[in-house]
Amino acid sequence: MKKIFLLVVITMFFACKEEQKQSIATTNQEDTFKPITEEDIESGIIYEVNIRQYSPEGTFNAFTKDIPVLKDLGVKVIWVMPINPISKVKRKATDGQFTSDIEDEKEREKYLGSYYSVSDYKAINPEFGNLEDFKNLVDTAHDNGIYVIVDWVPNHTGWDHPWITAHPDWYTQNDKGEIIDPINPETGESWGWTDVADLNYDNTEMRKEMINDLKYWLTEANIDGYRMDVAHKVPQDFFEEVTKELKQIKPVFMLAEAEQPALLEKAFDMQYAWEGHHLLNELAKGEKNADDFQAYIKKQDTVLQDDDINMNFVTNHDENSWSGTLRERMPNNKELFTALIYTMPGMPLIYSGQEYDLDHRLLFFEKDSIPKTKGDYFTLLQRLGELKNTNLALNGGKDAAAYNAIDAGPSVIAFSRTKDDDEVIFVANISDESIKTNVPQKGSYLDYIANQPTQLKGDAIELAPNTYKIYVKQ
């Protein structure tokens, strides 16, 4: 009897010790990693991770071990594409048909469906791992000084989401009382998103439950905010309520997949720079010139408030899969336009595989994978990330650095960015011919990419076709 009692005491002792260790670890993490602030995003770089395609395993754990690599690239925010289970009902295949229409079982099984057809907002896609794996991803990111936001799909759900049967009135219905997929209001026709059911935002109960589900991931997994899918199709007042509710739990960072400045007033911190992205593609093909770029930047001053942020990007999951790789869209100048999104006002995006110079359109509905060989492009992102993180002149958040256009003609994009005593000058020849262009600044600078001290004398510099210079004031 004494032996049994002693064994119980020893077991309880070690259990208490383990609980104490976990409590200390949690406390230490809270002490060292604080919720996101406006200062954190001034020098931010955001990374979009496609968990399915990031590794051969396609799991949270396979990605988590590489988070220190992202820290080396200067990443401050990880945006995780949807983590929820994917609907099996009306699951789409690559050719647009439903997998249920495919007779061959092996052929049918290879189609994993769209991340954006969610079957349960409060569950983890088993394809990626489990809840503990995801929590470990978030904790590891925090340990590396990186915040995590989750891709959320508020406009629609998959067809086997529990709400479909439990609350059909939470969905948009036709005259026959049938739940429908999202409709283009301008044409009255389907957008073609037939694998999802459109949510009804006139229903207040649905809104409440959606907000509860959004709160869940902040309290359960300690995430730092959300990227909201097709934010322009959901009522603005809903997002304003969401952000207000979430901020009662902790400070959050909110990204809108939209280009509607009104959404940035009370609901979001950052929006997609879709107009800027399309302009970059047109510049790369010679369809637009430097004057168009300067006009775009000037326009941003009129449509955005001082604390609004544009997310600048040369690729993302949609662009890569549907519009083409960087080699397809920017065959001679992807380095130039990559450097541009790091130096222009806003926050630059890196998409999974971009750092490894991905030259492949990733499959969207099937398993695929990215390369993992570091090359010159990876080194370029390292260098640009270091400059973005450390030089105040590239601040692009709530208290952004000044932008000063330099008139260098239609073939040269030139500007300086300044804040306090820091200055960065960007000059790029976007033509297919060598050009001499004036840089008016004088003094000691570092030719940043070449890593060479340079004296600018206010006279002409020569630029080869599709090349650029970044000068950093010394």
UniProtKB/TrEMBL annotation:
Keywords of this entry: Lyase
CDD domains, alphabetized: AmyAc_arch_bac_AmyA
Entry-linked InterPro entries: A-amylase/branching_C (IPR006048), GH (IPR017853), GH13_cat_dom (IPR006047), Glyco_hydro_b (IPR013780)
GO terms classed as biological process: carbohydrate metabolic process
GO molecular function, one term: lyase activity
The keyword Lyase is annotated on this UniProt entry: yes
Domain Glycosyl hydrolase family 13 catalytic: 7-388
Superkingdom, taxonomy of origin: Bacteria
PANTHER family recorded: ALPHA-1,4-GLUCAN:MALTOSE-1-PHOSPHATE MALTOSYLTRANSFERASE, GLYCOSYL HYDROLASE FAMILY 13 CATALYTIC DOMAIN-CONTAINING PROTEIN
Name this protein carries in UniProt: Alpha-amlyase
Organism phylogeny: Bacteria, Pseudomonadati, Bacteroidota, Flavobacteriia, Flavobacteriales
